[in-house]
Amino acid sequence: MNHPLKKHFKKSLVAFAALTLVTLVISLSLGSVHIPFKSIVEILISRLPYMGHYYPSYPDARSTIILYIRLPRILLGFIAGISLAVSGSSMQGVFKNPMASPFILGVSAGGVLGTAVGIFFGIWWPLLPLMAFIFAMGTVFTVFFLGRVKGTTDITTLLLAGLAMNFMMTALTSLILFYSDPTDRMSIVAWTWGSLSGTIWNEVWITLTVALIGSALVYAYARDLNVMQTGEISAKQLGIDVEKTKIIQLVAASLLAAVVISFTGIIGFVGLIIPHASRLLVGPDHKKLIPISALLGGIFLVTCDTVSRMSGEIWVGVITGLFGAPFFIYLLIRNRGETGW
Amino acid sequence: MVILQLEDVKTGYTEKKPVLKELSLNMDNGEFIGVVGPNGSGKSTLIKTITKVVNPWEGTVRIKGRDVKDLSRDQIAKIAAVVPQDTYISFPFSVEEVVLMGRSPYLGRFENYGIEDKRIADGSMKTTETYRFKERKINEISGGEMQRVMVARALTQEPELLLLDEATSHLDIGHKKEVMDTIKEKNREEGLSVLSVHHNLNLAARYCDKILLLDQGKKHSFGRPEEVLTRTNLRAVYGIEAEVHRHPKDGSLYVSPVEDNIRSNDAAKKMRVHVICGGGSSKDLFRELIKENYGVTAGVLNVMDSDLEKADFLDIECVTEAPFSSITDRAYKNNLDMIKKADAVVVTDFPVGNGNLRNLKAVERSVKDDHELILISPHEIKERDYTEEKKAVKLYRKLLENKSDVATVKSIEGCLNHLRIMRTKDK
Model ipTM? Predict the structure, then answer.
């Protein structure tokens, strides 16, 4: 496969944006209560400024379902998909390794531990995301600290430190699981598979803000990331501030993933396969890869969450894995023998 | 105008272990300077210091009169471009994308490559003859093509100073010449200044106007090739005995290590095998022969031929010829002498051209002499005969007519087996 969309990048971007809209609207109409497209459009338009005069607001339950249940959930799914995919693209670039994921620096393991600690000590539940976030970023900064060698960030040391901290956090979580009662145990395990149910608008605004800032930072340093693929010394000799690029990319990518999983729990696979699939479509140039990954990640996660909603709330991480893994294997077989992802 | 100036530079990686010591150098615009010296003498560190990858502990580095300390990475990259020894790129960028990276120091953070940038990249791809495969993935091209791409990327930086960090050391002789010729042309025609770190003395002597010989981080000598590459200097820095010759055609210097007496005597005691090869055709033969305790000699090999490099590495006595030159009478005669002394002569499946046809003539002339002659894959000569009028094919046909004296084997393993049988018979 030879990067079929590389030459048509702008057209592809428009096509994927259109596909995004279609996915969002279809997803809004699907669920335990069927709501026709016409009503959805009317409900949405009625909420736009100055439009309320022309479309009197729907007072019925359908309006509530759309505006307070489905819409925030679908938007959070979309934002989470974007964040995880952009984070994965960035991590794979910094580590120069197609096996890197948003969780490589311990975001997920830290997040689980934070949640487990919170549940174990019976912390007021709205504070659980804050616990997850603090532990996730705490782990990342510990790994960062360990990865500093002589004033520079050493990628191999970082990788190993991430591995060690992942083990450490997972072991501590298991210890908590061991002493927890069955109900708490179930909540903790459920968290490790992620869910978008019960999303409220505030979560959408917070993740949206972080997604915009984080993705903008990753994109701003996209060309630097490209040049770094030819080696760090070579990049320096081409005028790149390698250290700054690494720190910005790693912090932005970790933040993107940490904020999302704090609200949703761990949703795996998106941050690993979406960058892969996008690279196969548009090639490894991060200037193209990051926007395409973002849209593809959003579409993929909204689709998976819709399946989750339609199938009695199976954890969304299970769906991404069930969809993602076979697709991944398909790509693997299709590209077997070809060099370079 | 001085483009590069080093003043008493001292630097290194670990404390108290300086790699460069009190190094000073003045380089004028348009000069082609070679840097040579043994492993660990600080050659590559020099390039890293010039490009601010390594900072000097003491002393200053100035590019166009400005201290690199006061220049940003972008500013340095607009003046000085580096071609590294080898590059590994993890993702399948196209050749064009890699070359365009050379425009990076000229672009703002959110700026994209413009028409002008593409025009410059196209130009350097055409110069390095990489344009025709610009769409190909970088991890699917050969090592020689890769180095040309890296030269194209460096030229796309529109540098005034090109720094080569053993840029051709992994390339075979043909590609070495191709890459160096391209750079020499840029130097001559456009006044591009070149500082080129070399492992290979002969390459340095051939292309550089001046040579800096480094010894343990210090300047040992600096000047024109004939002033620097002398027997005395080579003995002092490399600890070898070497002859320095002038190339018969273009007058450039070349160096070939000389055999000392101890080793030749050693060869005299053992069963002697003379190998006629070239162009890498000897494969593992030298090593296997040494392992099985034969006295090995070889010839005639051109300096810079990969077979000669292998032979030098194993201390094998060779008849040598100037690089890229046809076999002269002197070498031809020396080769005949060695063939006469040998108990067995092995002819590998090397490519034959007009330049080395005399190697086969020497074999043909001595075929009746009292030694075993082993030919590796003689029947495939048609595919590797590059002479006019298929002279090599004819010579092989003559050799094979003397069936009783000539053994034919298909591989190096077959050749070794044949020699083993021969040795047991003798005993």
Answer: 0.88
